[in-house]
Please model this.
Amino acid sequence: MRKFIVILYSKGEQPPGWLRDVCQEGDVRVIMKPLSDVNWSEVKSAWAGENTEVWVMAHGLSQREDIYQQIRDDPRIYHFDYSSADFEYEETWRKIREAKTCGELIAVLNRWILLYDYDTEQIIDPLRRIKHRAINLFGPISVDFQHLLELWKQNRYEDARKLIEEMLREWEGEQPFSRSPCSMLARLWYMLVGEGLDWRSVGIPSPKELVSLPKSPRDDREKCLYEWLSLSRPKSVDDLQEWRALLEHVQLVKGNEGRFCVLKAGIFKNTKGLQQSLRAFLNCGVSSLEEAQQGVREFLRWYSELNLKFEELIQTWPKGSSS
Model:
C-alpha cells in the first residue's frame, strides 16, 4: 500500500528550501502546499484509483470550506487540524525546515503523525493539547502585565500609561470576540466544557467558532476537555478531585440539571474589574495605582496556578486512551 503525507501549511511555516511541493522515497510520497491557494482536485488526483493511506496535516483547515468537506468525507483520509499552540509545534517545524533529504523529511512527518494519532501509544494526550492552547490564550496578556508591574515599580508612570492605552485598544470589541482578559476567559471555559455551559445565563455568546479543540481522525467531532475525560472515566469524571479543582479555579461549577454555570466570585470578576481599574489609573493617576496593581497581581497569580491545575489533572489521564 502506498502512503501519502499531505501538509497544507500556513503563513510563517516553511518547507525545506530544496522541496518543490512534492518528494518521494519508496512507497511514501510527501506533498507540501500552502493552504491558502492549494488546488485540492490536483492534489487528490495523485492517489486516484490506488490502494492508499493518506494523511493530511493542515493549519486552520476549516478556513477553506471548499475543500474541508471533501477531506472530511473521504474515508481514505486521516486528517488533523493542528495549531501553533500545540506541543512540539515549533520544534517540528524547525526539523521540517532543516530536513536535507526526502527520507529525513518523511521521518519527521511520520513522528508528527504519531503525536496526533490517538490509536498509537506515542500520543500527545488531548488534555495536554488543550492545556497548551488554554495557557497560550493568556500569554500575551501575562507578558504585558509583567512589563506593566516593572514600569510601576520604577515609577515610570508615563510609559505605564502608554502601555495601558495600547492594551485597552487591543481589548476593544464585544465579548468573546475581542482580545480582552474577559474574552480569553470565555474561550477557556469553552475549551473546558463547550456547549455544556449555560452561555445565555453568562451573558456572553458561545465562542465556538473562535476555539479549536482536539479531535480524533476516527471521529471528526471536536471535543472539549470534559468530553475527553468522560471517554476515559464516564462514571466518575464529576467526582474527580483534580477536575473539580480546575473548574473551581476558573469559576465554573456543574449545576443540578447537568449544565455548567459561573460562580459569583473569582476570576470572572477580576477580569472585568481589570479594565475598570486600568482606566481609572489613566484618569486619576497615582491615586488609583494600588487598586490597579492589586488587580494585575491577582490575575498573574491566577494564571500561574492555572498551569499547575492543568498539570495535576493531566497526571490522571490514562495513556493510550482513544476516541
Summary: The chain is about 50% helix and 10% strand. Confidence is low (pLDDT under 50) at residues 119-123.
